[in-house]
Amino acid sequence: MNAHEAIERIYREEYGRVVASLVRRFGDIDIAEEAAGEALLVAMERWPEDGVPPNPGGWLTTTAGRRAIDRIRRESHRDAKHQAALMIEDDTPHEPTGIVEDDRLRLIFTCCHPALAPEVRVALTLRLLGGLTVAEIAQAFLVPETTMAQRITRAKKKIKDANIPYRVPAPEDLTARLGGVLAVVYLVFNEGYLASSSGAPIREELTAEAIRLGRILRTLLPDEPEVAGLLALMLLTEARRRTRVAGGELIPLHEQDRGGWDRELIAEGHALVRECLARNRPGQYQLLAAVNAVHTDAPAAGDTDWSQIAALYGQLYAIAPTPIVALNRAVAVAELDGPEVALAEVDRLQLTTYHAWHATRADLLRRLGRSAEARAAYDAAISATENEAERAYLSRRRGSLAP
Amino acid sequence: MTQYMLSVHHRVGDPVPSEDEIQPIFEAVDRFNNKITAEGIWVFGGGLEPRETAVTVDNTGAEAVVSDGPFAESKEWLGGFWVIEAPDLETAVALAKEASAACAGQVEVRPFQAE
């Protein structure tokens, strides 16, 4: 890695912290982003000669702050709020966020505000907290860069015009609003883990970014069990990533080489799940994490404690009665009570546009020896997904059906 | 501080409340108005007469045209509104929740352009 790449990496790591601090100070996302960009240029010039400062984040924030003040001085037509920022000589005076004093926490609640459309929340979070470039976000969600740039610009304008605050919600609203933030992080993770589109089956940059955001939230809100639950869920899923695709084909859980699972991530995920169990305030991410803990606990697929998994999905269904939860429960039921009972449950769901519903039906029909129906179900599953690795897997299964 | 319009819209097919039903709504709206006036949030507000009472004026051409009726023959129309002054959207939304409960209708929150 050359010096500039190293600096860019540090910059990306520190970006969320730097921008969040500047947004709090100047009350303006554009000023914060421009100043952070200028600070990067200064770092590129100085660090290769002077060396990386001991606290690069602090250095970038201070440098960016000075640049922002210079800019505001030059553009004297800025309004009173920005003029007022000139009076502030250092970075210290800011209102406490209430629970923890971290500007990133305020900013993520702004990015995930219910007044913004869900796809915009994801993009803004990746841009401002994750430090991804607009081009990277556009590529991740397969939209043209100009479209993504417009989307982000409009969202920032809405934040400014509607005066969406940079604030952690009041305690009585926190749980509901936190749900929105966690949903955004999980969406980023899922898009990385099973890309809905053609191209790379797994987008590591997205799963890594979601886990990084999850870790930040966990540090900032250590007493929120759903935050721990989501992080555990992501870690236990990520732990299996290396074994999930082989030769361009998706490998289902029961066929994965368990020796290739990341034991360190599993240990960390299990510790979080135990912590959640001790708290005993279950929520949907915690329950999904617990399901994954059961899977990653089994030395071989045959050792899986399916009754535990069915019970966890039952508990989840009580909080979140969605057909997708019912579908997952049916998969456990197939192992406990046989494919016929499971198929009856699956057929009641009618998730006809969902590839996993067709794939589950296909597998159950195959196990029941109903090859013709299974073949039709595999066909439906294949046409319902764009993910090449999944299509390859489904095609192989279809090909292995008895005539 | 930002000024926001909290607007209440009616739709074709909305049930028309009876005299008995409307009285508690008036009272709830009065209480809300008094509260936001006392807190210095109130700027202006009121309920509008039915849209049949509207007149539309167009002076964009050579001659001004005045016509009977509302601007658009739509399935939704403005029934009334508040203009409030609040520190941010969060506060405006919290007030809109109270307003919506008081007037028994959905409330749209929209910021005014900055000066």
Characteristic key phrases:
heterodimer, A: 403 residues, mainly alpha, Serine Threonine Protein Phosphatase 5, Tetratricopeptide repeat, two-stranded antiparallel ribbon, 19 helices, 69% helix, elongated, B: 115 residues, alpha+beta, Alpha-Beta Plaits, four-stranded antiparallel beta sheet, two-stranded antiparallel sheet, 2 helices, globular
Write a concise synopsis of the structure shown.
With 403 residues, chain A is mainly alpha-helical.
How does this structure look, described?
The complex is a heterodimer of chains A (403) and B (115). Among the domains of chain A are: 3-88, no CATH class; 317-403, Tetratricopeptide repeat domain (Serine Threonine Protein Phosphatase 5, Tetratricopeptide repeat). In chain A, strands 1-2 form a two-stranded antiparallel ribbon. With 403 residues, chain A is mostly helical. The model of chain A is unreliable at 89-100 (pLDDT under 50). Chain A is built from 19 helices and 2 strands. In chain A, 69% of the residues lie in helices and 1% in strands. In chain A, helix 9 (171-193) packs parallel to helix 11. Chain A has helices spanning 3-26, 29-50, 56-74, 80-87, 103-111, 118-129, 134-140, 145-161, 171-193, 204-220, 225-238, 263-279, 284-297, 306-319, 323-337, 339-347, 355-367, 371-383, 388-399; strands at residues 245-246, 249-250. Chain B has 115 residues and is an alpha+beta fold. Chain B has a single domain, classed as Alpha-Beta Plaits, CATH 3.30.70. Chain B is 30% helix and 35% strand. Chain B contains 2 helices and 6 strands. In chain B, strands 2-5-1-6 form a 4-stranded antiparallel beta sheet, with helices on one face. A two-stranded antiparallel sheet of chain B has the order 3-4. Chain B is globular and about 45 Å long. The chains are: A mainly alpha (403), B alpha+beta (115). The A-B interface holds A 113, 115, 161-165, 167, 169 and B 2, 87-90, 92-93, 109-111, 113-114. Chain A: Residues 108-159 form the RNA polymerase sigma factor 70 region 4 type domain. Chain A: Pfam families: DUF6596, Sigma70_r2, Sigma70_r4_2.
